[in-house]
Every structure is written in C-alpha cells, then in structure tokens.
Amino acid sequence: MNLAIAVLLGWIVMIGLMAALWWLQRRRGDAGIVDVAWGLGVGVLGAFFCAVAQGDVTRRALVAALILIWAGRLSLHIAGRLKRMAEDGRYQTLKDQWGPRAQAVLFGFFQLQAFWSVLFALPVLLAATNPSPAMQWTDWLGLAVWLIAFNGENIADRQLQRFRLDPRNKGQVCRQGLWYYSRHPNYFFEWIHWWAYAAFAIGAPWGFLGLLGPLVMLWFLLKVTGIPPTEAQALKSRGDAYRDYQRTTSVFLPWPPRSHGATR
C-alpha cells in the first residue's frame, strides 16, 4: 500500500472514532475518554504502518510490538482511572476556561486528537521504513530507551495511583518515589519514550524527522495539554500544599528537591 494513502486512511478512521467519542463524552460528562482513544489510536496506527511499510521485517515487528505494548498499558491505566475517579482535572479546568463554548471547542479538540494520533504514529512509520538490517546498534539503543521510559512511566503511574487510593492522603500532595524528584515524572518518561522511535528511524529515508516526535511531545507536555492545566487544577484543589511542592520540586526533569528557591 502507498504510505501516503495509509496515513490518509488512518486519519479518516480516527476522525470518525473521535466524533463518536465526542458524542459519548457529551452524554457522560467526562472528556477523559479521549486520552484512552488517543493512546490506542497511536498504537493501532503505528502497528498498521509497520505492517504496510517496506523496511526491515525484524525491526518492523519489534517496533509494532513496542508501540502496541506502550498503547495498551497507557490506555488501560487511564481507563481504570476513569472508572475510579471523577473527570481529569485538566479537562475540568479547560471547560471552566471555555465556558458556554465548551462542547463546541471540545469537538474541535477531539478532532485535533485524531490528527495528533496520526502525527505521533509517524515516527513509528519512519522507523518501519528503515531498510538497514536489524539489529543495528541504534536498534539496541532504541530498545534500551524504550525499556527505561516504559518502566519509569509505569512506576510513576502506580506510585500516584497507590497514593490516591489511600483515603488518608485526601487533599495531600504525592511526594513519594519518583514524585519526590519531579512534579510530573510520568510526563518526563512519556517524553523519553518518543526518543526510542527516533533511534529506530536512524538510517531510514527522512529518518531525521523522527526527532519531531520527542520535540513535539515536549511542547505538548510543557505548554499545551500536559503540565499547565494539570498544575492549575492541582493549585485549585490543594492550594498552599501544592505551592510549596512547586517551590521545592523540579517541574519536569527528576532532580533532588531543595528546601527553598524558585521553581525549576
């Protein structure tokens, strides 16, 4: 299959899926479902691109497995959180900001997620077009980065989940485990994850574009749907306790905390 046609087909499918999910969230009042669909969309699209590309078959199979494992873990984690908890504070904050236009803006937001699913599957496509025989040193590097990122994000998510499930911690700030060193260790390891596909893409035609994955993800996490609305909701719900956490703990990169000083 022509790769441009494959990308277009994947985008059309995601457009329809996100439109259906927007209608579902309007009935349920919980926009968090888009995060489940986004992760699964990236995973399925990435595996599909690996199936239709013409790169080394061993690398294509490996990269397809990795993106599906990543997507499955992330989507199951978010789906479980949706069942246990109220709507993600990020979306509550965004809805407050958008006011009466919230549902109209959310429809556009869901459609942006459809586009972003395709966008973040493209580094996987680049890796899948790499004709170099596997396993090159860059493949081992990509696998090592993926393992570090996958396990780091999984550990951070589980630590926060255990903290939240303990009723004694209601209204408190999680400073346990990785959260002692970063206010958003899950986001940090999510960012690291995208460097894996950049490594797998080294040697592919236009493989340098694989760098766009981690660069675009960093922008999203730091400036758009990651840290800004998450921190706004945390300040709203935890107040001075979270302000103290901001003063002492790195916002993104894991780093030993300090007792006083400006936010890093």
In short:
By secondary structure, the protein is mainly alpha-helical. The protein has one domain (about 5-250). The chain has ten helices and no strands.
Give short descriptive properties of this protein.
single chain, 264 residues, mainly alpha, 72% helix
Describe this structure in words.
- The protein is an all-alpha fold.
- The chain is built from 10 helices and no strands.
- The termini are far apart.
- The model has no long low-confidence stretch (mean pLDDT 90).
Could you give the order of the helices and strands?
A: HHHHHHHHHH
Cα-atom radius of gyration? 19 Å
Q: Averaged pLDDT, please?
A: 90
Strand count, sense and barrel status of the largest sheet are:
none
Alpha-beta content class: mainly alpha
Number of domains: 1
The best one-word shape is: globular
User: What share of the residues does DSSP label as strand, in percent?
Assistant: under 5%
| Oligomerization state | single chain
Poorly predicted segments: none
Kindly, what is the distance between the CA atoms of the first and last residues, rounded to a whole number of angstroms? 47 Å
Number of helices: 10
DSSP helix fraction: over 70%
Strand elements, count: 0
Write the layout of secondary structure elements.
Elements: H1 3-28, H2 33-52, H3 57-84, H4 89-98, H5 102-128, H6 137-165, H7 185-200, H8 212-223, H9 227-238, H10 240-248
Helix pairs in contact: 1-2, 1-5, 2-3, 2-5, 3-6, 4-5, 4-9, 5-7, 6-7, 7-8
